[in-house]
TrEMBL record:
Entry GO CC: cytoplasm
Residues in Orn/DAP/Arg decarboxylase 2 N-terminal domain copies: 26-258
Active site, per annotation: 324
Modified-residue entries (N6-(pyridoxal phosphate)lysine), positions: 47
Protein name (Swiss-Prot/TrEMBL): ornithine decarboxylase
PROSITE patterns: ODR_DC_2_1
Gene Ontology MF terms: ornithine decarboxylase activity
Native species: Chelatococcus composti
Length: 376
């Protein structure tokens, strides 16, 4: 947590949980990605944190944007991005949304099947398309291996079909899984991509670009490799599989761009036990899965939690949110160690929450308002 965030929270008097994002951290993260992969264009994944402040900052730094909807495209344009810096990266799009994106000037689209190619050909003629392929995501906290993408062997047919329909078969994309801790995870996907490039050339058309996707992690409870380690490993894999004919490349960092820039301040609402001889306390916060902490689902993401009583003796606790939904439990399978002296009314800090919190916050489930956010 930065001193700027500490100072903001010291002077804050509002009630209820809030997220505070330090834009200087976002700036430094962007520059780190740009230095680590200097020949690669950065397409920030808007879904991670679509706040106007973040988008405007990144647009001013020269970032491009990976978008998943017309609304996100419009957000990027409003922040100062030009259409040539926007990718419509969702492989599941309504044809009328493709048409609207085309009307707004977007000419780069993701596909993973011939049916999606047909929609793009009708609604966005002449545009560039890249085909997303499946990869196993081993080493990621959240593998993304089934919903999006096709088998590499199918990708050549998809791209050839796009070429025959008058689209520009631009390249290949993949995603090695969210919060990917293995710097070598891109190697096999790049090997598959190189094979697709070769087969497309044999069929009479050439690809130009590999979209390396996201997956770049932020630090939660465990240390993660530096961005530079990912950049070096990816560059070595590109050289290994493409030789001297290295294609254009883009990356889509989201969590790695904004995750460590944000801190949520929350309050302890209740501490109780379920029986007189229960060894485990239940600690209820004024924020839960429906208030922005949806990524605790299956306890996949374990956020660092700071309390005003750190340093005191700790014991394992079940951590839960405030809503009347039994699914609103953050950590139970692996209880979270918190100070024994923790009390009702204490303010706690949940770190690493700059990504995928405000966007997952419910509109008003149980009447709780959406998570407030401040960008400083």
């Amino acid at each position: 947590m930065t001193e700027r965030i500490r100072e903001f929270l010291r002077s804050r008097r509002e009630d209820g949980p809030c997220l505070v994002v330090d834009l200087e951290v976002v700036r430094e993260n962007y520059l780190s990605f740009a230095r680590a992969l200097p020949d690669t264009r950065v397409f920030y994944a808007v879904k991670a944190n679509p706040s106007p402040e973040v988008l405007k900052l990144l647009a001013g730094l020269g970032s491009c944007f990976d978008t998943a909807s017309v609304a996100e495209i419009e957000m990027a344009l409003a922040a100062g991005a030009t259409p040539d810096r926007i990718s419509y990266g969702n492989t599941i799009k309504k044809e009328r949304d493709i048409a609207r994106a085309y009307e707004l000037g977007v000419r780069l689209y993701a596909v993973d099947c011939t049916e999606e190619v047909e929609k793009v050909a009708r609604a966005a003629p002449g545009s560039k398309v890249f085909c997303r392929i499946l990869c196993d995501g081993a080493g990621a906290e959240w593998p993304l291996s089934r919903k999006f993408g096709c088998e590499p062997s199918m990708a050549v047919d998809v791209l050839e079909y796009a070429h025959r329909l008058g689209l520009e078969a631009y390249g290949v994309s993949f995603h090695v899984g969210s919060q990917q801790a293995n710097t070598e995870a891109w190697d096999q996907a790049l090997a598959s991509s190189a094979g697709i490039f070769r087969e497309c050339a044999e069929r009479g058309f050439n690809l130009s670009m590999v979209n390396l996707g996201g997956g770049f992690p932020t630090r939660y409870l465990k240390d993660v490799p530096a961005v530079e380690a990912y950049g070096a490993s990816i560059f070595q894999a590109l050289c290994r599989h493409f030789g001297n004919a290295i294609p254009e490349t883009i990356i889509e960092p989201g969590r790695g761009m904004v995750g460590n820039a944000g801190v949520i301040e929350a309050e302890v609402v209740l501490i109780s036990r379920k029986s007189a001889d229960d060894d485990i306390r239940w600690v209820y916060l004024d924020i839960g899965k429906f208030g922005g902490l949806a990524e605790t689902m299956d306890e996949a993401i374990r956020y660092p939690i700071r309390t005003p009583r750190d340093g005191d003796a700790v014991e394992p606790c079940v951590l839960a949110g405030p809503t009347c939904d039994s699914a609103d439990v953050l950590y139970e399978k692996v209880p979270y160690p918190l100070p024994v002296s923790l009390s009702i009314g204490d303010k706690i800090l949940i770190e690493g929450t700059g990504a995928y919190t405000t966007t997952y916050s419910a509109v008003a489930f149980n009447g709780f308002p959406p998570l407030k956010a401040y960008h400083i």
